[in-house]
Amino acid sequence: MKIKRILGFSRDLAKVDSMDTLRQTDYQRRQMERRKIMRPRVLIDPSRVRRLEGSFAFIPHRFVRDGFWESLSVEQLVAYVFLVLAADRDGISFYGPRKLRCLCKMDPGDDIDGILDELVRKDLIAREDIYTQVLSLPSAPSMGIGRGPRKRIGHPPREDIGPVDIGRLVGDFVKKTEGLR
Q1: pLDDT value of residue 124
Q2: What DSSP state is assigned to residue 8?
Q3: CA–CA gap between residue 89 and residue 55 (Å, rounded)
């Protein structure tokens, strides 16, 4: 207290403290209002909440929302997701094509090099020898050389749908993969 008086700013500190309290109270009031509007989150199994421990992988929401998911074949999706999961913090994966084919449970006849080359053409990965780097997403999905947009059988045109239903996308993916086996 003596130090504050000696330096001559005790009144200024009192003003700052009251402003911080006012801001904090306003913030808390807004948070309470938001909680009333938002549906409460319920943990289905509280003993199994995911935690970020050690390394982790992520795929930006844009991957689904901006059409990258739809621009890939099932084989390309499996390879891309595996590379994302296997990559280090800079996106580098050390799995060669043969090991990648084996771990992704692809048939020996599947052209893994062709699948990876298509991911390179779509600007999702870069390759050099056995190294593969998962790149940040480009501004828009590329359909690749010689390939137009896939037909959306049973779905409205892209501009007519709202937020992507992840459950529907995963269900479609599972159906497609079951048809390949």
Answers
A1: 96
A2: T
A3: 8
State how far the Cα of 177 lies from the Cα of 159, in Å rounded to an integer: 27
Q: Model's pTM, two decimal places? A: 0.56
What is the mean pLDDT of each successive set of 10 residues along the chain, which is 181 residues long? 50 52 69 69 83 81 93 95 92 91 90 94 92 93 55 44 60 70 56
Using only C-alpha atoms, the chain has a radius of gyration, in whole angstroms, of 25
- Sorted by where each begins, the domain ranges of the chain are 2-27, 67-150+157-180
Angstrom distance (rounded) from CA 68 to CA 122 = 9
CATH 1.10.10.10 is the classification of domain 67-150+157-180: yes
Q: Euclidean distance between the first and final Cα of the chain, in Å? A: 77
